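A quick aside before the break. I want you to see a complete sequence-to-structure record at least once, exactly as it would be stored in a machine-readable document. Don't worry about memorizing anything.
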Amino acid sequence: MVEEDGKFYPMMKVIHGKKEEYTICEYTYGKRLLLEQHPVLKKYLDSDECTISEDAASIEYSYGIAPLIYRQNKDGTVRQIFPDSSLSVLNNTTSAAGIVSSMTNQSVFTEMAEEPSLYEDQYDVKAGRWPESYNEAVLVLNSDGSISDYALYILGIEDDSVMMRFLQEYAKNKNTQAPTGYGTYPYDTFVGLKYKIVTSSDYYVYDEERQIWRNRSDDEAYVEQLVENSPDLTIVGVVQPRADASSTILPIGVAYTHALTYYAIDHAAESEVVKQQLADPEVNVLTGERFDADQRETDLDISSLFSVDTDMLKDAFQFDASSST
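That is the input. The structure line, written in tokens, reads:
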């Protein structure tokens, strides 16, 4: 598909060979456009020419970026709980019964749909309220009113050192018995819990001597201060699927708003390290070296900054090129 003067034209390349299978969605919107998350596809979906809105309750985009969420411990230390790497000790072995098996994506935090009408009438609010801003979230229970023991550890309700000891033992011996004896918690236990929002660009500090941006994520003292000064993410409510719910699209765990994703995007875009990279697209600000010719973009904008083919930049900002198209 190409766009010219506000009009969209399907394009086809015909070659001799084996027939390639397409789904209905790929036939309709273009397999290559979907795979590449091409900007012209988003333009088309947002245009008056596209009729997808007639058959969809809501149209939303995934931007390939997520905030980093930290927990502050009572002893002053901090722990990154989203994304969480605790399960790496299992080395891709079978998930541990009672801790991991109940978490299909092994993540307690997920982004909720942007359109509230897709889920609000399918859940009962057991305590508090639905989140309304980027720094608010809601705890989503199972239909029986429970959450996983893994979530209890990650959220700091249970001592996660118990989980870590079990995972380490389980990695050595698959017959290791999982911890038991979890209690029953009132809803108020969760309402008001606070965590910290960080973005990957916050890790970078300018080195005046070397004139490059250095990753300080391994500096414990720096990260603790960074987390302390970062905005809170507060659980403001607890919800449970209604008995007559026909669709429960919210994963079990902590669901944050789409607004937090936008915050992460905007915060990264406004950071000094990103601004400097935009100001000098020929030089990698993390190394001080010039990009190779095949990595260079002629018209660098915020999306192409993160699509430059260097693993270092991708890791630094966790950005997807589709996020600003």
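Two observations worth writing down. Residues 89 and 167 are 7 Å apart (CA to CA). The first helix runs from residue 24 to 29. We'll return to this after the break.
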